[in-house]
UniProtKB/TrEMBL annotation:
Family named by the database record: Belongs to the ABC transporter superfamily.
Domain ABC transporter: start-end pairs: 2-226
Keyword tags: ATP-binding, Lyase, Nucleotide-binding
Name of this chain's protein: Phosphonate C-P lyase system protein PhnL
Organism of this sequence: Sulfitobacter geojensis
Length: 227
């Protein structure tokens, strides 16, 4: 479902004499449907950079990144937008939302974008918010004023609203209490069971061991960082 072939990335620092930093050198791996692969490696190894390249936020200088039949490296912006709507989900660490939109609509929005009727989308959003222990009295409010942990759970509910065939998870259990951490791990297990291909960054080692089938040590592909 997700396949990287000979992928490399450099950053050019235009404000520092155009210094070129090699971050990822020649990484290849694939993730099958129903599989969860963890990106590991020391701080600065390039885990988040690689995840942003797979999502198409960062340019990739060399190689192929295939999600289904789309090569993100060469895809047109409109094809990337379509891929993100239908196929590729991304749960970042932080919620970014349009102010004043109620929480229930924030969570239902990815389904509405796919043409799911409002009632069905809201039913799914309600079920997820309930499962993630967001009190119903908050659903009609914008999440912008919510606590950090509440915002993270709204973000996770939104990220899991649509059953994406491929998902990228950046520290989905960071700063959650034990009960909510458990809910998130079970959501990941459910997604795997329905056949999602997942790539995740988990500093929580127990969580990683539980839900991930394999680990890719990104440090092996970081010039100057190899052990
Ligand atoms: N936009 C950018 N411009 C220039 N350099 C960058 C940029 N983003 C990341 N880097 C550099 O790329 C390297 C990898 O960073 P990245 O954030 O991917 O590491 P990480 O493995 O996710 O680390 P952590 O576990 O600390 O989050 C770092 O040396 C960082 O300084």
């Amino acid at each position: 479902m997700i396949e990287l072939k000979d992928v490399s990335k450099t950053f050019t620092l235009h404000n520092q004499g155009s210094a070129v930093i090699e971050v990822i050198n020649n990484v290849s791996f694939s993730v099958a449907s129903g599989e969860c692969v963890a990106l590991t490696g020391a701080s600065g190894a390039g885990k988040s950079t690689l995840m942003r390249m797979i999502y198409g936020n960062y340019l990739t200088q060399a190689g192929e990144i295939r999600i289904g039949d789309v090569d993100i490296v060469r895809a047109e912006p409109r094809d990337i937008i379509k891929l993100r709507r239908d196929v590729l989900g991304y749960v970042s660490q932080f919620l970014r939302v349009v102010p004043r939109v109620p929480t229930l609509d924030v969570v239902a929005e990815p389904l509405r974008a796919l043409g799911v009727p409002a009632d069905d989308a809201q039913d799914r959003a309600s079920a997820l918010l309930t499962r993630l222990n967001i009190p119903e009295r908050l659903w009609s409010l914008s999440p912008t004023t919510f606590s950090g942990g509440e915002q993270q759970r709204v973000n996770i509910a939104r990220g899991f609203a649509h059953s994406y065939p491929a998902m990228l998870l950046d520290e989905p259990t960071a700063s959650l209490d034990a009960a909510n951490r458990e809910v998130v791990l079970s959501l990941i297990e459910d997604a795997k069971a329905r056949g999602a291909a997942i790539i995740g960054i988990f500093h929580d080692e127990a969580a990683r061991t539980r839900v991930c089938d394999r680990e890719i040590d990104v440090g092996r592909f970081t010039p100057g960082m190899a052990a």
